[in-house]
Amino acid sequence: MLAKVILDFGSARMRATTVAIDDPGPLERFLPESGPSTAFIRRGEGFVGLGEAARFETDTLEAADVWWEEISQQIDHDSEMPGEFGVGPLAVGLFTFDPDRSEERSVLTVPQTVIGRRGGRCWMTRLGVSHNDMALPPPRGPVQAPVGSTRIGGSMSEDVWTGIVGEVVSLIRSDEVAKVVLARDLRVRADEPIDLRFLLDRLIENYPMTWAYLVDGMVGATPELLLRRQDGLVTSRVLAGTVWQGSEGHEGRQLAAELARSEKDISEHEFAVTSVAEALAPYCHAMNVPDAPSVLRLPNVMHLATDITGVVGPESGALGLAAALHPSAAVCGTPTHLALDIISELESLDRGRYAGPVGWVGMNGDGEWAIALRGGQVRADSPNDIQLFAGAGIVADSDPQIELAETDAKLVPMLQALGLG
Ligand SMILES: C=C(O[C@@H]1C=C(C(=O)O)C=C[C@H]1O)C(=O)O
User: Fold this and answer.
1) pTM above 0.95, yes or no
2) Which top CATH class is 2-417?
């Protein structure tokens, strides 16, 4: 485990200053060309984080929770917007799907500057040792579209992947396990380093109803919220069960109606809802789980969706709750440990941070953690390459070719952004 406090605070306490600012326009326009930066944006709201005051590389959400608790106790915060959700110093994180079986590290980073918008109100927070300079940073220069993007295949061929799906269907039919989410990857290589800000812009433009994220070389736009904790209320948007234009040759409303009636998708969805509801229950004084899912329509796919809500005490912070909920059956399977073992034995893929929690936590434990789906990872040592990931929930009625097509539909947002859609 590696904890880095980048600013030298010595024995001094950290000083954070938050000021209300005039609307600065699209937040992503403040992301600099180089240096650490983060973003978490949905429908124009959320934040960008610039620079890094402290960084913690870890394996677990629990360790990150303890670290942030200690760091946040060292911060004195002067705020023009006290008590407002998401406003103030925060830690932004990206966690591996399975720390026991990944070469990648999880990371929690504390930006030096945060520029945010919520409910139409905008602010800037700066973290430093003495008086903070509160001048807004200059907006960025032009971003660079990917040059010469080419698909260079994934860790497994499509035939190998559908073969694995077939094996998992057999395990499910022989009652060894109920549901397993299997993923595949696709590498894209460009002729020049990939400008993640360009990809983020395209995702924000094309998929405004998703949470667009940028943390530590990973960029994506996910529709799935593991949890939001706001003033003692916790909300989780569970997705599982998917259709896409072309899957049955039908369009729009008809497709949505078919999804809402599909027994295969409803059972796949129920596993995911049950896993989140059961994991959340011990932390909640009261909980609401809707009886039937709704349909969430995105430009590339539609999902069955259930919003679970609950009331938690002050002792349950967003990171601790994320630790309890991850990995849900939306991205792992049922029962969890059996599904995890099957994924690690059969999937032949290091998921890295794909399908892990991505989000932020504030000083009072409020926060939002999404699931890092529909994204790709660029590594510092190969800036021209991006690894994209997509998965699908496998149940007894799954057809390997249809599951493959589902993963293709889920890769569309990133391929489009890379100029390959
Ligand atoms: C695994 C992914 O998506 C998850 C799996 C879904 C499904 O199997 O229907 C739907 C939404 C997500 O919970 C992915 O996007 O890679």
Assistant:
1) yes
2) alpha beta
